[in-house]
Specification:
Blueprint lengths: L7 E6 L2 E6 L8 H14 L1 E4 L6 H8 L14 E2 L2 E8 L2 E2 L2 E2 L20 E10 L7 E5 H6 L3 H7 L3 E4 L1 H8 L5 H6 L3 E4 L1 E3 L6 E3 L6 E4 L6 H13 L5 E4 L6 E5 L3 E5 L10 E8 L8
Parallel strand pairs: 2-3
Antiparallel strand pairs: 1-2, 3-16, 4-5, 5-18, 6-7, 8-16, 8-18, 9-15, 9-17, 10-11, 10-14, 12-13
Length: about 280
């Protein structure tokens, strides 16, 4: 795998996750950027340290993974850069500039879409000195640890996901366009990775309405049980942020969540881009 002179990689947690240092993403060659794509495909999470990116440069980097996906909440995108979503608790001129509560429960991105998020990219401009870690769960390792009988019980199940349910849980008002363009969807509980076919146990209770073929509360209880299983410490990498971190994760094989911090004392300011799974990954 080709990296530029001075670049180094190290594992984050066994085979799960890789840290990259000594790479300037904004100036890197196509060959180096392609190697980062390959790292993500193989390891689920990539942390690239010490970056200095404009929103335009982040979007250009995102395009190496696919076309940037739409952000359904336009009020927190950067003016002139609708592909860049702001996660922040800052208030400027009496107006919140970003979503202060994004991603606090275990989930994979765009679970509500017919083609969920393929990968997500966060670039940190300002981070609290304590709290606000992002946790990532290795869903392939979690699947591998299941007994064969339990795998057989789970392998063909489908989960009912809903954007309406997700936003209602958060207390957000939906627009008519959102209701029209984001209908309920169904995704397999066990997801085969499009890169190499490895299976991942991918439960998500937030925004879910249950499991097909199981009445609630049984269906929702199963999802909550499985989320608790895949997010055990043995499967989780906890990322402590530094300003300049560029963190990428593969939604095919990870769940993630943010952890709390003192929002009265500290600021968090992060730019997010993401890539929707291509049609071939979710062909009927």
């Amino acid at each position: 795998m080709q990296m530029q002179v001075g670049a180094h990689t190290r594992p984050l947690k066994g085979k799960f996750g890789v840290e990259v240092t000594g790479v300037d993403v904004a100036a890197a060659s196509p060959e180096v950027l392609a190697s980062i794509v390959e790292l993500l495909n193989r390891h689920g999470v990539v942390v690239v340290r010490d970056q200095h990116l404009t929103p335009e440069e982040q979007v250009a980097f995102t395009r190496y993974f696919g076309a940037p996906a739409d952000n359904p909440r336009k009020e927190f995108t950067i003016p002139g850069q609708p592909d860049v979503f702001v996660i922040s608790n800052k208030v400027v001129d009496g107006r919140p500039i970003g979503d202060a509560d994004a991603g606090t429960g275990w989930h994979f991105d765009m679970s509500y879409d017919r083609r969920p998020g393929f990968c997500t990219i966060l670039y940190a401009l300002e981070v609290p000195p304590e709290g606000s870690n992002t946790l990532f769960a290795d869903l392939c390792a979690a699947w591998d640890e299941l007994p064969a009988q339990r795998r057989d019980e789970l392998k063909d199940l489908m989960v009912h996901h809903s954007f309406i349910t997700l936003q209602t849980m958060k207390g957000n008002k939906l627009t008519d366009e959102q209701r029209r363009t984001l209908p309920d969807v169904f995704h397999p509980l066990v997801r085969k990775h499009p890169f190499d076919g490895r299976p991942a146990l991918r439960p998500c209770a937030g925004g879910a309405n249950g499991v097909v073929g199981k009445d609630n509360p049984e269906g929702m209880d199963l999802l909550k049980e499985l989320v608790a299983y895949v997010t055990q410490e043995q499967f989780v990498y906890s990322h402590k942020w530094s300003a300049g971190d560029l963190v990428l994760w593969d939604n095919n094989c990870t769940l993630h969540r943010g952890t709390p911090f003192d929002k009265q004392k500290y600021f968090r300011h992060v730019h997010r881009t993401w890539v929707q799974s291509p049609p071939a990954h979710y062909a009927a």
